[in-house]
Design brief:
Elements lengths: L5 H85 L1 H30 L5 H33 L5 H29 L9 H24 L12 H54 L4 H20 L10 H19 L5 H33 L3 H19 L3 H23 L1
Helix pairs in contact: 1-2, 1-3, 1-6, 2-3, 2-10, 4-5, 4-6, 5-6, 6-7, 6-8, 6-9, 7-8, 8-9, 9-10, 9-11, 10-11
């Protein structure tokens, strides 16, 4: 080899080495980028799928929770009937544990309704909070349903070993006769009030009376069906039929109680209307003075609007000696007008005046709230309702309890007005 050719050879080899290295590095970079792109696409797709599945899962969770809530609400209502029959058939001592379990289940139902209300109040975008509340609702409902299922199974097994069918039938016949007499008295009471009220005001007691009559007929039919299979020593084969008869009698008893309560609420509503009309007349005098001394045009305009609303309410609730009327509708008109006037005059009244007006408005609004809640309870029990309707009803009942326990008259009035609002929402949802 020529000596001076050695540097040239070394330079050529070096260039080849550099070129090869560059190509290798470029290839690695391309592969890394490609792998990164693929990984990003996979992760994106997985993340997107997971997001879609998460949304679907949350919808499914809320749907399941709603179904369990309705199921538990219905089961608690049925268990009330079952408890009455268990006491009659097995004695109070034997049914005591069931009563305790039912009370616990009712408490869990109340908690589940409260969680449902909290979830409805949470922003739709707060997925984690909604999910946690929904899971808590589900767990409460499942636990309560499982407890009631255990007692159902225990009572079913015990009834199969009972032999006192003859005595049970005799007791049920006596109760049937007593309830028939009571139903006639309730029918006469409804007829006596008919000339004084519009049809809508008597809808609730009449419907409850019809339900009671239907349940009494059902019970009598069941007793007649059981009679041929009963001997002095008792027969297990008729236990289920007697249970049907007893449950129907308990339903009739509750329906008659509800009808009597509805008639009593009519009288309470009439008295409340009279009180609220007197209070409204007094409030209007105060409002007209405040209108002239309003601190600014906006406050004056609110007072003028509230005065007009109260005057309309008074005109529409003018008592007529022989004219049929609906005192609950009159109460609603007067209560809404009074609330508007309270808001308009809030800045013009001192603390003592606010207390006095709150106490005066509270009683009439309380009657309205109880009446509205009774209507929705009957509606839910008669035809069923969605979980949302039942949740609003539970919240109306909770606000009613808060109002009744509150010592501050202003706070009590605010709570009872919230109760009325939730009860109206529940009524609308139940009828939808």
């Amino acid at each position: 080899m020529v000596p001076h050719a050695l540097p040239l050879l070394v330079a050529t080899d070096t260039a080849e080495l550099v070129r090869g290295t560059t190509i290798a590095v470029a290839t690695v970079v391309v592969l890394v980028v490609a792998i990164g792109v693929v990984a990003f696409v996979v992760l994106f797709r997985r993340g997107g799928d997971r997001g879609i599945r998460g949304t679907s899962s949350q919808t499914a969770l809320e749907s399941r929770a709603a179904g369990l809530l309705v199921a538990l609400d219905d089961r608690v209502r049925e268990a009330d009937l079952e408890l009455g029959f268990a006491v009659a058939q097995f004695g109070a001592a034997a049914a005591r544990d069931f009563g305790s379990a039912l009370a616990e289940a009712r408490g869990q139902l109340t908690d589940a309704f409260r969680l449902g209300q909290q979830r409805d109040d949470v922003s739709a975008t707060a997925d984690h909070a909604r999910r946690q509340l929904t899971l808590q609702m589900t767990a409460l409902c499942e636990k309560a349903l499982a407890t009631l299922d255990r007692f159902d199974a225990a009572f079913t097994e015990r009834r199969q070993s009972e032999v006192g069918a003859a005595e049970t039938e005799h007791q049920l016949r006596d109760r049937l006769s007593a309830l028939r007499v009571r139903a006639l008295a309730t029918r006469d009471a409804v007829a006596e009030r008919a000339p004084h009220y519009v049809e809508s005001a008597l809808t609730a007691p009449r419907r409850q009376l019809d339900a009671a009559r239907s349940a009494l007929d059902e019970s009598e039919t069941a007793l007649d069906a059981a009679a041929p299979g009963i001997s002095p020593t008792g027969v297990n084969a008729v236990t289920d039929t007697l249970h049907t008869a007893a449950t129907a009698l308990h339903r009739a008893d509750r329906a008659l109680s509800a009808a009597d309560s509805a008639l009593g609420e009519l009288a309470e509503a009439d008295a409340a209307v009279s009180r609220m009309r007197a209070d409204s007349a007094s409030d209007l005098l105060e409002a007209r003075v405040a209108r002239e001394t309003a601190p600014d045009p906006e406050s004056g305009a609110r007072i003028v609007t509230a005065i007009a609303a109260n005057e309309r309410a008074l005109d529409q609730t003018t008592p007529a000696s022989e004219s049929p009327h609906d005192p609950f509708e009159q109460l609603a008109l007067l209560s809404d007008a009074a609330a508007e006037l309270d808001t308009a005059l809030a800045t013009a009244r001192n603390q003592q005046q606010r207390f006095e007006h709150a106490r005066a408005a509270y009683q009439g609004t309380l009657v309205a709230a109880r009446s509205q809640i009774s209507v929705v309870r009957e509606l839910v029990g008669r035809s069923g309702a969605s979980a949302r309707a039942r949740t609003r009803l539970a919240e109306a009942e909770r606000q009613l309890m808060i109002a009744e326990a509150e010592t501050d008259p202003v706070e009590a009035l605010d709570a009872i007005r919230r109760s009325v609002t939730h009860a109206r929402d529940a009524d609308a949802l139940a009828r939808y």
